[in-house]
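Ops channel
N.P.: pipeline sanity check, posting one input/output pair.
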């Protein structure tokens, strides 16, 4: 079984967050681990962010998730595949 890790860069969190979260919920059973990173301090919360996903399950479903994510404006997806 392959291990697939996706990196999702969100360039406008306020605009894209709802659509991204809907896909996270739709494919929740395929997401083993989710780590969200963005710049924040006492004065500002960054409008950009990076989400790392350790995926699980059927590779076809994972590829469908990736394809649907790429359709959202302001989203860039990078994939790492590790052979078992």
């Amino acid at each position: 079984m392959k291990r697939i890790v996706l990196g999702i860069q969100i360039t406008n969190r306020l605009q894209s967050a709802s659509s991204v979260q809907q896909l996270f919920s739709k494919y929740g059973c395929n997401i083993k681990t989710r780590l969200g990173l963005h710049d924040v301090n006492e004065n500002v919360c960054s409008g950009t962010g990076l989400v790392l996903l350790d995926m699980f399950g059927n590779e076809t479903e994972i590829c469908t998730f990736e394809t649907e994510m790429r359709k959202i404006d302001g989203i860039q997806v990078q994939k790492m595949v590790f052979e078992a």
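N.P.: looks fine end to end. Residues 4 and 81 are 5 Å apart (CA to CA).
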